[in-house]
Amino acid sequence: MTMKKDYKIHLIAAARPNFMKIAPLYHELNKTDWATPIIVHTGQHYDINMSDAFFKDLDLPEPHIHLGVGSGTHAEQTGRVMIEYEKVLVQQQPNLVVVVGDVNSTIAATLAAVKLGIKTAHLEAGLRSFDRTMPEEINRIVTDSIADLLWTPSPDGDENLIREGVPPEKIQRVGNIMIDSLEMMRGKIENAGTWQDMGLSRNVYAVVTLHRPANVDNEDTLRSLVNALIELAAIHPVVFPIHPRTRANLERFKMMEKLQATDGMKCLDPLNYVRFMNLVFNCRLVVTDSGGIQEETTYLGIPCITLRDNTERPVTVIEGTNRLCKVQELRQSIESILNQKGKKKNPPELWDGRTASRIAERIRSYLGEGGHKV
User: For the chain, which has fewer Cβ within 10 Å, the N-terminal or C-terminal residue?
Assistant: First the structure.
């Protein structure tokens, strides 16, 4: 098959997890003789980890295009990304736009591209929590309904899309791109030495991350969580990198000092990915309400308790090491894990660190055979 040299492929990223998902695909496409990957940073999220060190860890160049959207309401962010990205699309006319995840920039970039007749692909398609009170769920549903290619990480993604009436030829199961990122950075993670720096013992501490509004914005809920973590610290060391939103509420509700004064509790500022994952690699269990860490712990075979009523990653519960848990059940779930021996490792099919290469081949076939040129 004769390929056109220099297909332009936009990789859209808005927040730190997005960059981690596009990094393996950027490197895979960049080493081909037919594609030019172009990193588009919408600027939707800013945090301390969006630094030179973060891009260096991922071996990424600075984003080629900055939209500079900034913070705002859901409508403001979505609208600004559409307005600014449309200008870029008109000027650059890429052959394919790749969006990832479920943030506002995901749906906004997809809408802007589709309305201009530019082909789009959604990486991490088909994930559903079935909870439409979550803004991310709306973003997932709408993005999947209009994108041209839907790259799913697991069988439940395929099934959700089929149930929603998506034509099967649009759906391509490629695996979990976050596992590619983890493997790409494994050497740095293993050498980071975070757990040693903190004086911890391998496999005898818990890592906690909490940031979802349902858990940290309500005073009674947050107090129940704090009390449960204090109980855990009494029997098992706890490391708690505290998200800025969570810290603000802990201080507002006057719980921070009590938490910091608890024996066995290490309260930290947020860590970069490498140092954080070094903690995870060497812990006994994780307590979280995050999405990505449910996948990483499943791949690593580390028990994970997710403080949510639902998850858009059910494969981590069905096949992996994750379990959903209500706040009042936390102590019982922790005790159950601590009484178990060893770790279980059973990563889902195609969670193997080769997702980016599969995607690159799908893109090559799609652009070459489909003639999707602008």
Answer: N
Provide the CATH number for the domain formed by 187-338 in this structure.
3.40.50.2000
* Cα–Cα distance, 259 to 253 (Å, whole number): 12
Q: Which of 211, 236, 243, 372 is catalytic?
A: 211
Q: Which two tokens stand for residue 209?
A: 């991350």
Q: Which CATH superfamily is domain 7-175+352-370 in?
A: Glycogen Phosphorylase B; (3.40.50.2000)
Domain borders along the chain are 7-175+352-370, 187-338
Task: Give CA–CA dist 16/45, Å, rounded.
Answer: 8
- d(CA 180, CA 79) in angstroms, rounded, equals 32
Rounded distance between C-alpha atoms, residue 152 and residue 174, angstroms: 6
Q: Residue 278's pLDDT is what?
A: 98
What torsion do the CA atoms of 65, 110, 364, 315 make, to the nearest 10 degrees? 110
pTM of the model: 0.90
Quote the tokens at residue 143: 């993005």
pLDDT digits (tens, 9 = 90+) for 57-74: 899 999 999 998 888 889
4: Cβ–Cβ under 8 A, 6 or more apart, which residues? Answer: 34, 367, 368, 373
Side-chain-side CA neighbours of 128 within 13 Å: the count stands at 18
Residue 211 designated active-site: yes
| Phi-psi map region of 340: left, alpha, beta (phi>0 left; psi -120 to 50 alpha) | beta
Least confident of 37-51, 71-85, 290-304, 359-373: 37-51
* Residue labelled with tokens 């997005």: 18
- Give whole-number Cα distances, 79 to 71, 72, 93, 104, 212, in Å: 12, 10, 20, 9, 24
Instruction: Tell me the pLDDT tens digit for each residue of 271-282.
Output: 988 999 999 999
177-195: burial string, b at 16+ Cβ within 10 Å, e else: bbbbbbebbeebbeebebb
